[in-house]
Amino acid sequence: MTNVKYDENGLVPVILQDASTKQVLTLAYANEEAVKRTIDTKETWLYSRSRQELWNKGATSGNTQRVQSVQIDCDGDSLIYEVIPNGPACHTGETSCFHETLAGEASPSASDMITELSALIKQREIDMPEGAYTTYLFEEGVDKICKKVGEEAAEVIIAAKNRDARELATESADLLYHLLVLLQEQKVDFKEVTGVLEERHAAKKDK
Asked: Positions of the region Phosphoribosyl-AMP cyclohydrolase (predicted)?
């Protein structure tokens, strides 16, 4: 921890970032002991300036975070904890503490859009609103959903063979939507899919 430059109060700013989506979750502070505990336990440890004490993220709320990596900036005076969150990071219940826009218009990333679509599909399965296509798929069950995944995959292949870029994008979007519905029907979180990709990527880097 000797490379970390703490301020006059013995603190360093810490950005908490979702390891999968790269979304910024929280800006907080840590002292040397909090950083050490984070590295040793792979749990998010911070320092509360208001309470003047160490705190383990999620110890009370249950919204814990598993730390994948601790990164330090080029000047050594700020850190990033890349985490896998088990619930919202913000005390308001929002995924991120940065959920309000002060100026301009926030553009959702591709991962944000998939996360939002996954959440909408999950809510559709709970509410089952009448007339919604997603409701129809859940009512028909896994056989119908699998059939649609197969049909859309075939459409993607046809679009690619026809060298039709616009059609390929459209059919790929349809395939992704139906795949997300299938994952929800099977109760497989999309983060499990990205987790497999991350493991494979890490394995290739180690070779």
From this structure: 1-113
